[in-house]
Amino acid sequence: MTLIKSISGIRGTIGGVPGNSLTPVDIVRFSYAYCSELRRRRPKPTGARYTVVVGRDARLSGEMVEQLVCGTLAACGVNVIKAGFASTPTTEMAVIFSKSDGGIIITASHNPRQWNALKLLNERGEFLNAEEGKAILDCADRGDFDFADVDSLGSITEEDFTDRHIDAVLSLPAVDVEAVKKARFKVVLDAINSVGGIIMPRLLDRLGVECVRLNCDPTGNFAHNPEPLPANLTDLCSEVVDSKADLGISVDPDVDRLAFICEDGKPFVEEYTLVSVADYLFSRTAEEAAETGRSLDQAAAPFKFVSCSNLSSTRALRDVTEKYGGVYYASAVGEVNVTTKMRETGALIGGEGNGGVIYPALHYGRDAMVGVALFLSNLARKGMKVSELKKTYPEYHIAKNKIELSDKSLIDKILSEMKSIYSNENVNDIDGVKITFEKDKSWVHLRKSNTEPIIRIYSEAGTETEAAKLGEDVIGIARKIING
């Protein structure tokens, strides 16, 4: 059994002993702490009510957790808008639509079926920052409960925000609905038997796309490992070829991550989901500037020719951005860190290499819905096959490794010495140590885990062999440091 507490929420395996897994006791304690800190963070006049949106994916434990969360919020005197089955981005948008004070998403994202989690949102429908998250953890640990009396209990109402989310996506100027309809695409959708099987077919239908459904019943019985990686998508790859589809679409259980399959059954690679969307937005903006005679800055307003992803994401996004004369920024790993950097820099597009697309023109959150709409718009306007589109982007490969350590104190020593050893290269230490070898357009990122005594080592280069060797070389140096 496992329980992991972090600034972004609490997650764990269902059942077991309180404090060691995600039990009803832990759910109530954490939900109470969220309410308590909500009042401190957003003071209101005496008697004024707070409203919080609660949405969930289709996990087997989802209904049980939802009842506990909603009941606790009401017991704290908070009004609840229960969004029911709702993707993570839909719940985020629901906070905006309803002008609520916050939101709680019940989902463990790409974790297996025995996991669930509470992810916490602010009044903008965005994840809490580190300071806000820590305050909730501290409050939960204190366990000082003080619930509302019978005359002050909150209400619980229900509202489905799915269609409003789809409306918002399709109303974006960058989503070329007519071009997609004219292309008459046929796709295979793998929704892992979660909420993607509800919202994604609706979006595709309104775009005039024929959808072959695979694992689209929201039962919570995941048909395979829910992380949208190539090794877990073999059935989708086969179905794309068998159905003679134009592409395959895979989303994770809460629909904030997105991966595509080419028409030949080969992975587009999730790292390139964000790259392709960024390329489309930059090229479209440049075309509009040329057609209207406006400057690029005017055409891109209020956002700039700027992109952002985390340190462990592919360099291809930087290459594509610089092709248009734009600027790329890297943030620490974590969605809230990416969105913070995007706000600071006025980024037009950003996200994470795990298939997470963040388009500020809609909202500051990873959203597979807007990712699909923009990708299909790009494909329709270019008139290419998906495999042909992939070949237009710089080719990179990422290798993922880790070093397990019995002594946690060695982690900081390894990171510090790596900085010294590679001091002549481009070194970024905002989140672990990332060493970029500009001459070879390759990099390696060493980052300690927040939950385990390990260092994750991601490396990227132009070929799989080069990426693997770079990671192995760094692991070799780390072992020498460990052995003195």
Low-confidence stretches: none
CATH H level, superfamily name of the largest domain: Alpha-D-Glucose-1,6-Bisphosphate, subunit A, domain 3
CATH topology of the largest domain: Alpha-D-Glucose-1,6-Bisphosphate, Chain A, domain 3
- The CATH architecture of the largest domain can be named as 3-Layer(aba) Sandwich
Q: Work out the helicity level.
A: 25-40%
Task: Note down, in words, how this protein is organized.
This protein is an alpha/beta fold. It folds into three domains: 3-160, Alpha-D-Glucose-1,6-Bisphosphate, Chain A, domain 3 (3-Layer(aba) Sandwich); 165-261, Alpha-D-Glucose-1,6-Bisphosphate, Chain A, domain 3; 397-482, TATA-Binding Protein (2-Layer Sandwich). The chain contains 16 helices and 20 strands. It has helices at 24-41, 62-75, 88-98, 130-142, 162-170, 177-183, 196-206, 234-242, 271-292, 296-300, 316-323, 335-345, 368-382, 386-390, 409-421, 464-482, and strands at residues 3-6, 9-13, 51-56, 79-85, 102-106, 115-121, 156-158, 186-190, 210-214, 247-251, 258-261, 304-310, 327-331, 347-352, 356-358, 397-404, 426-428, 433-437, 442-448, 454-461. Strands 1-2-6-5-3-4-7 form a seven-stranded mixed β-sheet, with helices on both faces. It has a five-stranded antiparallel β-sheet with strand order 16-20-19-18-17, covered by helices on one side.
Offer a few descriptive terms.
globular, Alpha-D-Glucose-1,6-Bisphosphate, Chain A, domain 3, 484 residues, alpha/beta, 5-stranded antiparallel beta sheet, TATA-Binding Protein, 7-stranded mixed beta sheet, single chain, 16 helices
